[in-house]
Design goal:
- The chain is mainly beta.
- The chain has a single domain (2-12, 27-194), classed as Beta Barrel (Porin).
- It has one helix and twelve strands.
- The chain is elongated.
């Protein structure tokens, strides 16, 4: 827990320096829901490769907060996703705390704003398999793109895609050690409200 706390301080400390009071910024909060498509190409138990895992499409959820500086946004995100692995009769879930940066590509006299995003996070990867449950914490990266539709003053609907990847976790399940890819694609739809 102490290591996770220190990691969160490290991830979010840049925002305290970048969010200068000289710059006009609009705070915002929001949430998203969508689909998670794992792209992991390997899974092994005690060093023996089991081949390609067969994942079901999973659900993904996230909550966001941050500041909008018009041309860019800085913020934090808490995200969760879960997928079943059909050929192993098990499931894998990922809980992550993410520091994000967004580049807004504003279109003059339009209420549509395309954007690019990048983020760094700490993720807790949990696996429920073989009659046991285990987890491991890893550093992950994400890259994405999307579009925001302003529906009223301060309220925006988002549609976005992101690619999520990280260090392969090593998860202890009793006497077994599971290693797996956690790369995946997310398609998310959400709402942001400025205040």
């Amino acid at each position: 827990m102490t290591m996770m706390f220190r990691g969160l301080i490290f991830l979010f400390s840049p925002f305290f320096f970048l969010a200068s009071p000289v710059l006009a910024a609009t705070p915002y909060v929001g949430g998203s829901k969508g689909f998670a498509f794992p792209n992991g190409e390997k899974i092994s138990i005690n060093g023996s490769c089991l081949g390609d895992p067969q994942y079901d499409t999973g659900a993904a959820f996230s909550g966001v907060f941050g500041k909008d500086y018009d041309g860019y946004r800085l913020g934090g995100e808490v995200a969760y996703q879960k997928n079943e692995i059909d050929n192993l009769g098990s499931d894998v879930s990922v809980f992550s705390v993410i520091a994000n940066g967004y580049l807004n590509c504003r279109l003059e006299q339009h209420k549509v704003t395309p954007f690019l995003s990048a983020g760094l996070s700490y993720a807790k990867v949990s696996v429920d398999a073989l009659g046991a449950r285990g987890s491991d914490g890893v550093v992950t990266l994400q890259l994405g793109a999307g579009v925001g539709f302003q529906v009223s003053s301060g309220v925006t609907i988002d549609a976005k895609y992101r690619y999520f990847a990280g260090v392969d976790p090593g998860i202890e399940l009793g006497s077994r050690n599971i290693e797996m890819d956690i790369d995946n694609h997310n398609f998310l739809f959400g709402l942001r409200a400025g205040f």
